[in-house]
Amino acid sequence: MRIEAKEMHSIFFKILVNHGVPKEYAGDWAQIFVDNSLVGVYSHGINRFKKIIEYLDKGLINIHEQCTCEVKIGNIERWNGHYGIGPLNAKRAVLRACELAKEQGIGIVAVGNNNHWLRGGYYGSLAADQGCICICWSNTKPNMQAWGSVDTNIGNNPVVLAVPDISKEHIILDCAVSQFSYGKIEECMLKNIELPVPGGFDEKGKLTRDPSIIYQTKRVLPMGYWKGSGLSILLDLIGTILSNGNSVMKIGSFEREIGLTQIFIVVDPLKFISIEKMNRIVHDLKKSLKDSHPIQEGEEVYYPGELETKARKENLKKGLPVIEAKWKEILNLL
């Protein structure tokens, strides 16, 4: 079934308010859920909504506290998220990093004690809309094994890189450092389909494409094997030091996945290059990729973020596709 974006926002808003979220926060939060669904990332949009409501009902999200700046040194700031509304804190942080970048060329905001930011690409897109280049990441609870270990001791810490395009069809890479995020694994389970490539290990330690088996074993595959494992460790280490927040290991000691660490590094490229030259570089790259020959006849080669742009246009026109059972679960929260 398909739901219009305005209707989905209205339902999300009402549910959030009914569960105690102040109206001045509920509208923006609901819109982020809708935006994530519009670009086809349902695992961090509509399919994540019920879990967030459960966190609200357990009192795990401080709905009355916004993030605050605790340390400022030039164009670097350290903020405390106060275990508040993760996406709204992250939005404020990336926009602040953009302000710093516009002033001084580069802006860095490190946020500790925040909650789940939902889809990291959302913040890359916000920075790109400001004409800025963005690198940002978040840590997670321990949900992946360090390479060579059987213990779940590192996170599949999502990382985002974004480059603006004047047409607003930005180039954005948004990926967990596991081959697939748990959200994508859950989505494939709901659709009863296999992963396109192996995404984790079964109970015997063999690679598998079966999402239900990976969800049971909790043994997701680091992207690039030991490379993804190493990247996870360094992202967590750098983030924890800069934010003075919680490491993956510390988050693992909490009852739920709360108190995450997020880093936002934003650069204003127009301090170094003309907008005409930057756009020429971006468009030349896009053209090179689109002109390349696909492996299979009739297929396309996509640049990072292109599929999300296409999904947004289609979903705004046709309505958002939702799994009927999921939508009924959400309506039951009213």
TrEMBL record:
Protein keywords: Oxidoreductase
Matches recorded under InterPro entries: Mal/L-sulf/L-lact_DH-like_ah, Mal/L-sulf/L-lact_DH-like_NADP, Mal/L-sulfo/L-lacto_DH-like_sf, Malate/L-lactate_DH-like
Coiled coil: none
Top-rank lineage group of the source organism: Bacteria
GO molecular function: 3-dehydro-L-gulonate 2-dehydrogenase activity
Name of the top EC class for this enzyme: oxidoreductase
Keyword Coiled coil in record: no
Enzyme Commission number, as recorded: 1.1.1.130
Cross-referenced PANTHER family: 2,3-DIKETO-L-GULONATE REDUCTASE (PTHR11091:SF3), OXIDOREDUCTASE-RELATED (PTHR11091)
Protein name: 2,3-diketo-L-gulonate reductase
Organism listed in the record: Faecalicoccus pleomorphus
Lineage: Bacteria, Bacillati, Bacillota, Erysipelotrichia, Erysipelotrichales
